[in-house]
Amino acid sequence: MVRRTEWPGDSPDSSRAEKELSPQDPAERARAICLRLLTGTPRTRKQLADALRKREVPDEVAEEVLSRFEDVGLIDDAAFAGAWVESRHHGRGLARRALARELRTKGVDAELIDEAVGRLDSDQEEETARVLVARKLRATRGLDRDRRLRRLAGMLARKGYPEGMALRVVRQALEAEGEDTDDLPHEGF
Asked: What is the extent of the structural domain holding 89?
């Protein structure tokens, strides 16, 4: 049986527990909170700032601690964005649009988002879409052609693929299976 270590912050009374267990110095408390959060997974500066605000660390102390963590490389939003794009594109098949949306919710700067998602080119994105459709294609066999088109294109749309690319990839996959796609729209669902 694996035992999980309980950390301050795991329970509903987390802020009270942290105040009791943490040093009285707000800067020391802020450093402890950030280090604990960074131990589990990389975080953006905004995510850490939100966590410190939630735990009532004064803004000026939080700013000082976060700046120091950035200076020493413990917080690096550009590296976070690059790793996020790489991981989520290859692991989940997400397209640039969906990746950018996720990074925005994590508080990554727009320039850094553009740089990170810009590393994926259209050919790479389209190839990933083809792989996703190929995986799902078998599960749609037996359905009528229009239903297959909607399911497969809808799956790509939910992953952030542009409509035109989604339709093109699905049409090509259906044609490769011998489906007649001449009467299907080239754009729009």
From this structure: 77-118
pLDDT class of 178 with cuts at 50, 70, 90:
confident
Q: What is the pTM of this model?
A: 0.76
Write down the H helix ranges in the chain.
Answer: 14-21, 26-40, 45-54, 59-71, 77-92, 96-105, 110-118, 122-140, 145-158, 163-176
Distance CA 155, CA 187 (A): 16
The whole-angstrom separation of Cα 113 and Cα 97 is 10
Q: Please give the C-alpha separations between residue 128 and each of 9, 34, 92, in angstroms, as whole numbers.
A: 38, 36, 10
Q: How many Cα atoms are found within 13 Å in the side-chain-facing hemisphere of 98?
A: 17
CA dist., res. 173 & res. 56, Å (int) = 54
Matching residue, tokens 């992953």: 159
| Same domain flag for 166 and 127 | yes
